[in-house]
Model the fold of this input.
Amino acid sequence: MTTQLTASGVLSDRALITAFAETPRHVFARRAGGTAASAPVSSAYSDRVIPTRYVDTFDGALTVTSSLSQPTVVAIMLELLHLRGGENVLEIGTGLGYNAALLCHRLGDQNVTSVDIDPHLVDAARECLTEIDHHPTLAAVDGEAGYPARAPFDRILATCALDHVPRPWLGQLREDARVVLPLTYGGLLMVLRFSAGVLSGRARDEGVYFMRMRHSADEPGTPSSEPQGEYRHRTIDIDQYEVTSEEFTPWLELSLPDVRALSFGAEVRLGTETGHARITDDAHGTVVEEWGTPFFDEVVEAWHAWREAGRPRRDRFGLSVTETEQWAWVDEPDSDHRWPLTDDSPLLPAGTNLPSHR
Ligand SMILES: C[S@@+](CC[C@H](N)C(=O)[O-])C[C@H]1O[C@@H](n2cnc3c(N)ncnc32)[C@H](O)[C@@H]1O
Done:
């Protein structure tokens, strides 16, 4: 696995290469439920996501709430942290602790704090990490509040997708700190720098799709949207390839935050809380099937706006966060294309003594 990640150019930092080579992923994979537990050790070293925890949704279905991320994505995000040694790092989303183990190998246990909303996972992660003799600071808390007791941080790495940057994080970053996080909008992977009280930066050109940040352990990681309600279909004249491309989804999901791209490829589906759309092609054009509250006309409007803006690709998107506001943007923070992001988190978490920036 490490040889492949290095050959593909994803891993290049020598100390991280050693961390990958010497950290046994199978110790974490075998804690996963279902088939992974009995799967051969070698299967833990393929470049695949391994689901590790499920919760029941109210309709009796199971949804995944934690997984061992794909090694390529883990490597990309760790490289983006630009670790030089000695940095104090906070990871949001411990899962079973594989990433935390890599960070411990790279930085030493004393520099690693990792938190997860699910206490069951934190217990399991502690056992897995102890087995390979790593002892970072672990806590079962909502990562929205950061982890003031171990601040200030030089790096924050989120391994769950966020629709905004939690305001408490700003007070826990050291000057010049780096934050790497996936946004829910089209899987934008952001690399942000903290300077003079402002956290700002741009997206990478690769998209990463993580389960969303939850605020209770029983909440599903990814809300489902099933076709239901009144059915309609029509054929319309749009470029089906573009409207359903991953290039367009960051713009689409920022412009229409209620709309989620549910699947790509042979069958493209979009969903909202109350509506569902399936987009396919036939000999006459693009067929749009809709169930429930219609929303596809708004998708088409957003697509026209995206084309007029020059079809911005992922790496033209950015994000800026101050104490009082935050917004996503295209090209520059003050561009005409901006989307304010809502942060419902309190200005300061109750009872917190924020460290001063150094
Ligand atoms: C993709 S998994 C993390 C994988 C893990 N980093 C690894 O190395 O295998 C995402 C994790 O984020 C956690 N999570 C979701 N919402 C959270 C929150 N508010 N605070 C902390 N963790 C959260 C989930 O419980 C889940 O374990």
Remarks:
- The mean pLDDT is 89.
- The two ends are 39 Å apart (CA to CA).
